[in-house]
Amino acid sequence: MALPASRSTLIVRVILAMLLVATAAHSADRGADWMNEELLIRGDYFRAASVAYEDFSKQLARHLADANNPSAAPSTRDLGKYLSTIDHYNVKVGMGRTRYAVWISPRSSEDFPAIFGGEGLYVLDVTTFKILEKHFSK
Known about the structure:
The protein has one domain (5-29, 43-136). It contains three helices and four strands. The chain starts with a helix and ends with a strand. The chain is globular, with a radius of gyration of 16 Å. By secondary structure, it is an alpha+beta fold. Helix 2 runs antiparallel to helix 3 (74-82). Strands 1-2-3-4 form a four-stranded antiparallel β-sheet, with helices on one face.
């Protein structure tokens, strides 16, 4: 199933942004002002992450709804806003013989040093890239 150009472009931009953030963090750990190295991601891992992200974006929308709920506590609204964008997550991809595993988990920040929940785990078929399982923590 082909994604509409705008949605496909968004997914590519989000994943590329995640890669840049990961590379920048790696360079920052070494005290560099500017990064001058590449982060390589295999195409099949990129595709697995894209499929998982397309589904996980529904979770991001739920967090945005929490952020916009006027009856929610301010702390819930703030956390909902933070968790409503993929920029605040780490994504790990692993592969076995017949499956990919994609873990999407929120990153802690200065405002949210400890986040419990919000993770997603996707298991995808290695040949079709169809989601076989998905699990979310609350």
